């Protein structure tokens, strides 16, 4: 996959880091490299840029992370039935550009594509946490503020991560992606401790809204290859968009998936319909004014996000869930950022407690 970079910025204190050396070796020769005292300044929106967020995606900043690497999933709250996920932030922002991406709001003041050279500190944090939670299976993902594998060809971080998790029984890594960047993964043995998950959308959503991502077919083919290499694979149908013909399109997408991947090898499905705060919706519509997927009828939910009208969401969830159950009856399925009542109507049961669901997904 070829992403455009306008420039690489390397923080002075990372000049001699292994990550900076790998990046400089792998980037195309036409991309200029600049050294800066503070990476945070290079990551700020550039004044005068027509689309500061889009421009930030093309500025890679190699810097040290000053905050902790590990945190609870920002989607989690007492209101929602969540999966007890922990987020490991090894990068911030993403070279792809999905019109609905929440990073357009979350990183509006900080859009540079940052990768953290001191990522060994993340592994120390994980070891400390695992020591404090003996007997628990912790599921840790790197795909929240960035795509887990975008630019892995350049940074090569996935190999070290997979090897780190392979040596620790209580930890499961989830690498979440919309790419087909799996070459590094195929060279290491995950020993069952890494799940690679793909967000899947129908072709219509890919074409209108998921710019510079791998096609849905390429994602499915990549899933098949990592499964054959000993990884576990999961799938996020998120955001599900309630456009005319969506039920049919999601059905066809699942048909293609089940034709390629044996249903009993799928670690989980997550589902979540499109949700946007008013600020995100405004930003997304400004950046992608001709995207029909951003123009559906929505209502403001109690959590302050626009979503499709609940009966419409529930009907679409059910249609998709029934299709999954028909082919993959044993695959765990959960909803992301939905209230327990919706969970019950779609999946027929109250969501399990957070820790139990997280544990189940981690153990497979
Ligand atoms: S791939 Fe994920 S992180 Fe990247 S732009 Fe799309 S939604 Fe955002």
Structure overview:
By secondary structure, this protein is α/β, with parallel strands linked by helices. The protein is 36% helix and 20% strand. The strands form 4 sheets. An 8-stranded mixed beta sheet has the order 4-5-9-10-11-13-14-17. The longest helix is centred in the C-terminal third of the chain and has 18 residues. The protein is globular. The protein starts with 6 loop residues before the first strand and ends with a helix. Iron/sulfur cluster binds next to strand 7.
Ligand set: iron/sulfur cluster
Rg over C-alpha atoms, rounded to the nearest angstrom: 20 Å
What general outline do the C-alpha atoms trace? globular
Structural class: alpha/beta
Round the mean pLDDT to the nearest integer and report it. Answer: 92
């Amino acid at each position: 996959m070829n992403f455009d970079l306008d420039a690489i910025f390397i923080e002075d204190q990372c000049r001699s880091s292994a990550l900076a050396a790998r990046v400089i070796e792998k980037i195309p020769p036409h991309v200029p490299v600049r050294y800066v005292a503070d990476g945070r300044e290079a990551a700020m929106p550039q004044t005068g840029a027509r689309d500061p967020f889009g421009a930030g995606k093309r500025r890679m900043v190699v810097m040290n992370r000053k905050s902790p690497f590990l945190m609870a999933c920002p989607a989690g709250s007492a209101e929602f039935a969540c999966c007890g996920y922990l987020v490991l932030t090894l990068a911030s922002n993403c070279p792809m550009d999905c019109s609905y991406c929440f990073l357009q709001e979350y990183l509006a003041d900080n859009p540079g594509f940052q990768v953290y050279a001191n990522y060994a500190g993340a592994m120390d944090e994980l070891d400390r946490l695992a020591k404090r939670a003996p007997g628990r299976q912790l599921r840790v993902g790197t795909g929240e503020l960035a795509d887990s594998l975008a630019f892995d060809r350049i940074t090569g971080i996935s190999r070290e991560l997979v090897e780190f998790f392979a040596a620790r029984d209580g930890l499961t890594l989830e690498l979440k992606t919309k790419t087909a960047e799996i070459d590094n993964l195929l060279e290491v043995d995950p020993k069952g401790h890494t799940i690679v998950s793909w967000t899947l959308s129908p072709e219509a959503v890919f074409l209108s809204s998921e710019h510079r991502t791998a096609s849905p077919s390429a994602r499915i083919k990549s899933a098949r290859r990592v499964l054959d290499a000993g990884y576990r694979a999961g799938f996020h149908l998120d955001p599900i968009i309630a456009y005319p013909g969506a039920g049919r399109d999601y059905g066809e997408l699942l048909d293609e998936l089940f034709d390629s991947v044996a249903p009993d090898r799928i670690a989980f499905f997550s589902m979540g319909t499109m949700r946007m705060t008013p600020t995100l919706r405004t930003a997304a519509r400004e950046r992608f004014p001709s995207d029909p997927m951003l123009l559906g009828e929505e209502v403001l939910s109690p959590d302050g996000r626009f979503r499709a009208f609940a009966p419409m969401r529930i009907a679409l969830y059910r249609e998709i869930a029934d299709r999954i159950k028909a082919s993959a009856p044993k695959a765990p399925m959960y909803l992301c950022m939905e209230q327990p009542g919706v969970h019950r109507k779609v999946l027929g049961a109250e969501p399990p407690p957070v820790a139990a669901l997280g544990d189940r997904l981690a153990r497979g």
